[in-house]
Structure prediction request, 363 residues.
Amino acid sequence: MGSEWLKMLSASSIAAPVGVVDLDLDLANRTVASLGLEGAVVGSSVADVARRSGARAVINVTVPQAHGVVNEEAMRAGFPVLCEKPLAPTIAEALRQVAIADLTGELLMVSQSRRYFPHLAVFREAVGRLGRLAAVSADFFHEDHEPGFRERMAHPLLVDMSVHHFDQLRYVAGDEPVSVRCTSWNPPWSWFDGDAAATADFELASGARFAYAGSRCTPGLQTSFNAEWRVYGENGAASWDGEQTVGLDADGTLPEAQDAPEGIAGSLAEFVGALRSGTTPQNEVRANVLSLAMVEGAIRSRDLGGERVVLADLIEQSLAQAIAAERSDDVGELLRSWTSAAVGITTPAWGSTHAPTASGGAR
Ligand SMILES: NC(=O)c1ccc[n+]([C@@H]2O[C@H](COP(=O)([O-])OP(=O)(O)OC[C@H]3O[C@@H](n4cnc5c(N)ncnc54)[C@H](O)[C@@H]3O)[C@@H](O)[C@H]2O)c1
Prediction:
């Protein structure tokens, strides 16, 4: 995925890659050479490479377990960070990253790149015509062969893939999840070590339900990577095939899909726009915690045999875990100062406290 980011950045008119960091320096050097980035600084320390290359920001495309340590090093060195999903392996680690963003005053945004598709924006408009919602469903059935960390994970569907769909639900429905019941399993023919299939039923704040079903080892009838969606409301229904077909069975017509940056280019555009304007981007670290909580809540429910898990309770328990595990005085002090995790993730986000600079840049 690092190569995908580098290719996109090389062609971008709003950013350019000036350094590449990897623990595997041979891989970093080969990647730089193969992409023709001869001037790029290469190294294994993000703060060192960022300083030597004159970088203005860091894009973190490491494995999820390394997101926290790399984000912390970058933010403590004074760099804003755009971090690949999932933000962290646990909510407790995500809350720690909220604290570090608070302490350093740097922007930490999570790249939930599947929010950036022109037809998803049209689908959101369609859902907006339905009035109060009753139910949303999303089905994801794929045959994914991706040797590497995914095939060794305990929850390759929920942690690595469903986080996109859960985050898309929040974007599309404009509603927030309250609780979840989930079951997950691994079909007998699966080439994944962990559970490659799951169903989850979320209750939303409005009272509507989100029914999710997915599998990464389905050798037939593949859906889009974006899943297939249906929404039912008081004025009618809407659908999206995850690609370019949006349906609306209700009054009104739909707007044309706009020409806008897609996927990771969309994430980059929002990140750079936020740095230039001082506004708070979607999926600024605080907002992203709830998308992550949908994943962890689903796994907790599965471990409890399908019991209902209330996400707000899970987030508060995670704050207690984060405080107990903390080894840095400044982070521990800040986490303990929050009267609740809910307060911590509603503290003024980056953007509400940053004015754009005269040069149009963030720093
Ligand atoms: N948005 C998407 O559609 C999408 C698609 C694929 C992957 N991803 C995300 O991108 C990230 C990377 O996935 P991938 O498939 O490229 O993984 P990968 O294992 O192929 O590559 C990760 C790289 O990070 C390096 N690394 C690990 N720890 C490091 C550290 N502490 N410092 C520096 N480098 C370190 C590894 O050496 C490796 O080269 C994951 O978070 C994944 O979920 C997102």
Summary: Residues 1-2, 21-24, 27, 61-64, 66, 69-70, 84-85, 113, 148-149, 160 surround nicotinamide-adenine-dinucleotide (CB under 6 Å). The radius of gyration is 20 Å. The longest strand covers residues 133-141.
